[in-house]
Structure formats: C-alpha cells, structure tokens
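Backbone geometry tokens:
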Amino acid sequence: MLKDFFLNEVKNGINGAIKSGSLGQMELEDEYSLIVEKPKNPDFGDFAVNVSSLARMAKIAPPMIANAIVDKLSKENYEVSVVGGFINFKVSDNLLANTIEEILKKKENYGRGDGKDKEKILLEYVSANPTGPFHIGHGRWAAMGSALANLLKFYGHEVYQEFYINDAGSQIQKLGNSLRIRLKQEKGEDVDFPTDEVERKNYYPGDYLIPVAKKFIKENPDVNVDTVELSVLCDYAKNEMEACQRELLEGFRVHFDKFYSELDLHKSGKVEKRYKELMDKGYLYEQEGAMWFKSTQYGDDQDRVIKKADGSNTYLTADIAYHADKFDRGFDRLIDIWGADHHGYIARVKASLQALGYNPDKLEVLLGQLVNLVIDGNEVRMGKRKNMVTLDDLIEEVGVDATRYWIMQEFVQY
C-alpha cells in the first residue's frame, strides 16, 4: 500500500509539473514507467523513486526533473529529499499509524484486490523432462511458481496451474537405453555407460535408475534384458520418474491442476493441425529440405525451422501447438516461467501466436537464472547426468519451509 501511495504521489507531481511547464518538453500523453524502491542506504529514507528515465522526454537533467516534481508534492505525510535523479521519502509517524490501523482492520484481506480486473490465468512452470529427479534448480521454479499462483489467487484472479511433460523427444529413448544398462548390471553383467563424453550424452548414468531397475526385475524376474522392447523400458522408466516427481511436488506443497503430456499433444493431431494452418496461411517455406517459419515477419531476429529435413518436428512445432491450445481453452492470460537459457525462445513463440491470430501480448514469460554449483572453487552447471544435488536431498536436510523460504528470498522485491 505504501509503495502505491508514493508512486501515486510522484505521478501526481509529474502531472502538476507538466501543467506548470517546469518539466521541459514532457507532455501529459507521454508514456513512462516508474518503480518504488527501498534505498540501500537507510539514511536516504524509507522509499525512493528514480525519475531519471523521464530525461529523454523532458530534455532536462534528472536532478532538475526530481526537484520540479518535489515542488508539486503535498509533503503532508512524509519528508522528501532529492539525490541526483532519486526522490527519497521518509514515512511520517502519522502515515505509518494510519497504515497499521488499516492492516489491523482488514486483517487477512489487507492487500486483496477488488476483483474488478480479474483474469483467467494459465500459469505453467517447472515442466521438467521425466528423465530423472528434480535438482535444486527445478525447486526454484516450483517455489516461485506456486508462490506466484497464491498471490494471483489472493488478488482475485482465477489461476490454473499446469506442468508440461516433455515426454515426446529422444530423451525418453535415452532414458530407456539407460535403464537397460542398469538392468544388465542388476543381472550381474559386466557392462557400464560409455566413458566418451560425446557418447555419454546419449544416456542418463545417474544412480537414480538403480532402484528403478531393481523394481523392474522384482516385477519381471524372468525378463530377458537383451530382448525386452525398448518401448517397454522407456514407458516404465518414464512412469517411475513421473511418479517420483509428482510425489516430491506434493511434499513440497506445489499443486498442479493438470499434467499436460507433449506425447498426447502429438497423438491428438493438434501439432500437425497448427503446422498445416501456418502452411495454408503462407508462413512456411522450404529451404535445404527443411520447413521454415517466417517468424521475422513478427519481430524475431531470424526465421525458425519447425520441420527438419528428415521430416521430424522441432521443439518449436509442439510449443506452437501447445500455446495455441492454451488460448483455445479460454484463458485470458498465459504466464510461463522459463530458465534464462530460453530467452531467445520468447520472440519465436510470440511470433507464432500472432501468425495464428492470437494476441502475443497475452503471453508473459518470466525468466530466471540457472542454478550453478561450486565444486573445489570451480563453477559448474548442474544436470541429470552429473553434478546433481536433488531437491529431495535439500528438503530432507532442512525441511520444506526452510527450502521454500531460502529459494524465494532472491525474488523478494522491497
């Protein structure tokens, strides 16, 4: 509430300064955005607003802008000072007392929205491959996504939480082949995963498949590991990993309304339907045997392949169909939480939605940095093939509440 109060004060001050002609060339119609921050140095005050971004429109120096705005502020419930382009506010005891009184009056409803701008929102997050347990990086998105869902619901939005299962790619075959090696080891065969780094990328050599292999053999004691079909091993390993992930999410107090299978998306025909739609609209062209989407027509920095020369789809093809399906299910806004390594993916997904006739501005993507480990002083990436600290291990060590709190600290904005 206090942040909103000071932001409105500054905006009113800007309007007053514009009308009086003290903000140079800036006009009332100019669009701008400002953020209320907590000063790092408490001597500056309780809240601060940086108005330097207005210099481009006003054509005058930030300190002059700040002083022009301050001259129009009421200053009734706060002290104000200017440092460079920052307007600093110190809350008065009277304003603080009134705020506390309102908090005590509204209690659990303090900060709740009035529901006037309520939207039906689909929030998709975590969406990890079903090829292994969650590492602490997955825990970051799980904690952040569930907290965001709680906040949006509290404000009055209708929020639907979804986990997209990436179960249609080659990674599932790699998982099945990895389980076959673990089964042979359980049968006493002298076999191991390749040591060559390139070849090793075709497997998941983590120890987490050992208990899966033991369970498979217990259920199928007479199995011939060499002749059992790969599809059987793939399905078994995938189902075990999915069950492990779902159990952990429930224990981590993260609830999903739907687990949406990429494989089912393909089987439904929706992927090919969207491919054909783009083709019929003239947004695809062939080059070197592959089919390319003209995403540059909608702001992407280059066109994108959506069907390879061998006839197989790229990841983008399914993602186009998936996001279109989200809108077809009647959601007003889509929110995705992705890792920073997917930054370049945003433009191409939005381009595809616009080409299909959807409003790309209704898709919002939140990005976060990847989690790295420091081993012997060296920073290394985590993955399911090596260097993995599981979310389960962390929860077991410190508990659910401490884990969620620790992970969420970096997302807190003062």
Observations:
- The chain has a mean pLDDT of 90.
- The CA atoms of residues 138 and 281 lie 38 Å apart.
